[in-house]
Design a protein that fits this description.
248 residues; mainly alpha; Four Helix Bundle (Hemerythrin (Met), subunit A); 2 domains
Amino acid sequence: MARRVVPSQIVALIDQNFTGAQSPSLGVNHASVASLTAVVRLIDEVPSELLTISGRDYSDLIRGIEAIRNSVAFWQHKGSGEIGAAPIDGKNILVVLRTVLAKCPDQTPSAATAELAFIADDALRDSVRLDISTATSALHNGEWKAATVLAGAAAEALLLWAVTAAPGLTTLAQKPKGPPEDWGLSDYIAVAMSLNLIKNNTEKLAILAKNFRNLIHPGRARRLGEVCDRATALTALAAVECIVRDLS
């Protein structure tokens, strides 16, 4: 399986190997050249969707990469000693790269993940989209339990948002005790149905997803003689897709 390189990994490499990178000039020598080329190679391997920077930040990233490449090539041509790589706008090249990479996330939803435009809260929307994307990725990788559990979590988050945003919640005749944040997934499903937020088939899938998600507990799985598999993962993801469709 291919290794996935993330921005924080490169930030850690810079911190571990270049503690003196605060001086403007970057020294390229026999001791530093391997780490410098590793930084550039790892940046090349970062998935493009994780490089969420733009404008000046992206320009600085490219400038930094090319500055290291050119300096290493010049040092190799020289054959010995040390050369000083010129700073970028008065800053050490590695400081510039570290600053830019620290702004990039290690995870981001795939482009195919539903946009969830109906959720106005940016942080919540991004969190749920990431769970759906990761669950889908886990399904493709054969990680059945991870896909089942993450899809179940996404379903719960979506229904919690939906019932709390529904104007009819305060006048609902029967509802679980306590604030919605303290309810369980079964409560969200029941209330969502009472408020006509989801359809009958969605309710059935969501109940199945709830039951399958509980298989994460070893005692329950052993007692029922069931395990998470491709079917549970597909069901949980189908429940999420139907919830998204209904709420949209």
